[in-house]
Every structure is written in C-alpha cells, then in structure tokens.
Amino acid sequence: MNDLPPDLPRLRTLETWLAMSLARVRAQISAAEQRETERRQGEERRPPAPDWIIELGIGQGAPPIEVHAGHCHAAGKRRRTIDRDQARTLLADGVRACVHCRPDTDLGVL
To answer: How far, in whole angstroms, is CA 109 from its chain's centroid?
Structure first.
C-alpha cells in the first residue's frame, strides 16, 4: 500500500515539488488574509451615512432640487450633507421631498 517511489532521486523530486506547492499555498493564504484585513479596515474607517442629503441642480449656484434621507438610493450624484434643521427649512421653503425615502414624513413636515 506504499504509494511513494522507493528510490531517493524520485523522493527528492517529490519533496521539492511539495515544498514549492506549499510555498504557493502559503502565498495565497497571505494574500487572502491581506485582502480580508483591508476590507475590514475599510468598513471600520468608512464614514457614517449622513442623516439628510440635499440633491443639487445644475448650473451656477446649483439650486437645491430635492431633499433625501441619508440612506436613499435615489439621491443623485450632485448632493450635499445637511442637518435635520436645514432639511426641515428646505422642505418648508418648497424644496421637493423624495418620493422614495419620504423625508417629509420622517421630519414631520407635510
């Protein structure tokens, strides 16, 4: 039941091949651990989502278009973080509330 070769040269060749394979596996493990560490650090360092967002229009002065909750998926790329009071003021001034996240309901401005 011995599945290894009986002679020394072939055993040495097998030993070399196994050592090289083990080195490749260890390198892959190290790379995977590094990726996992970087992913974890990225999650820990990610800033918290803002509570409220104002979506801005195009053009000079970039007028506010729509108020969103901070987690809203429908907020456009041109946006700025605002606080609760600013969001309420903007909604009271007639800036549209997002129909997806309904910030007017959360803020008590109907």
So the answer is: 31
Distance of CA 95 to the CA centre of its chain: 29
> For the chain (length 110 residues), average pLDDT per consecutive 10?
86 96 98 98 91 89 89 88 92 91 82
Q: Is the dihedral of CA 38, 39, 41, 42 positive or negative?
A: positive
pLDDT given at position 28: 98
Helix (H, G, I), strand (E, B) or coil at 26: helix
pTM tops 0.90, yes or no: no
Q: What one-letter code names the amino acid at 42?
A: G
Segment holding 12, helix H or strand E: helix 8-45
Exposed, middle or buried, 15 (CB in 10 Å: 0-12/13-18/19+)?
Answer: exposed
> 82 burial class (0-12, 13-18, 19+ CB within 10 angstroms)?
buried
Torsion of CA 48, 50, 56, 62, to 10 degrees: -80
Quick one: DSSP state of residue 93? Answer: T
